[in-house]
């Protein structure tokens, strides 16, 4: 995760941060001043609220939930979700967070119970004012897990504020992906990035030609979905353009063999900058 942002502050705001007390996390709100950077740490947890009102680092679902109410004003969350065996599976029924404008959650699926806790967290979390949501959860997955993610995105997008979605998923539940891309809530998206090794050509190409789906989309990135043939993708873009009022202007896909000059020129003729990644991206741990 990126390091905490450093900004100028008064001497009164430069106070030593205290340790995170699992039993007394409510006291954090009383200790924290408006300009103070608070470090929240345990043996396996490192969460930090920066002076720019961002919650960063890594921690368990319960610890992240405990920190969210301490965020003030327009805030952001960029955390890696950890799982500690034996932690109590207790998540509030509702975690209301209207102050969150940007949400980045990353993790892995190696622990089934940890995945179940994360699903409970998403079902409880309410971020009606979020403009950007990224869920970076590569590795093994289940239909139920991914359905929970799409339901969360639908719920978050119902206010019309969500404009950017970034997903790194196995995409094993393709009907859920297709339904989300066709949903009224996804119409507000301006930017969509999908990182997956799955064969999602059918789900993507059946949505793109219809201008009413993803109506406001301007920027589209498909990483590692190397099965998508540039020519077929371009034909879908041309059908969308022919339907009128297409706002797409930038498209990037993985094409190891590259894009032909003819494909690039045809895309530019309809106002789209068509680019490609020449290699398959592998995330480093």
Automatic annotation (TrEMBL):
Residues 1-44 are annotated as: Disordered. Residues 1-15, 35-44 have a biased composition (Polar residues). It comes from the Eukaryota. This is Uncharacterized protein. It comes from Schizophyllum amplum. The lineage of its organism: Eukaryota, Fungi, Dikarya, Basidiomycota, Agaricomycotina.
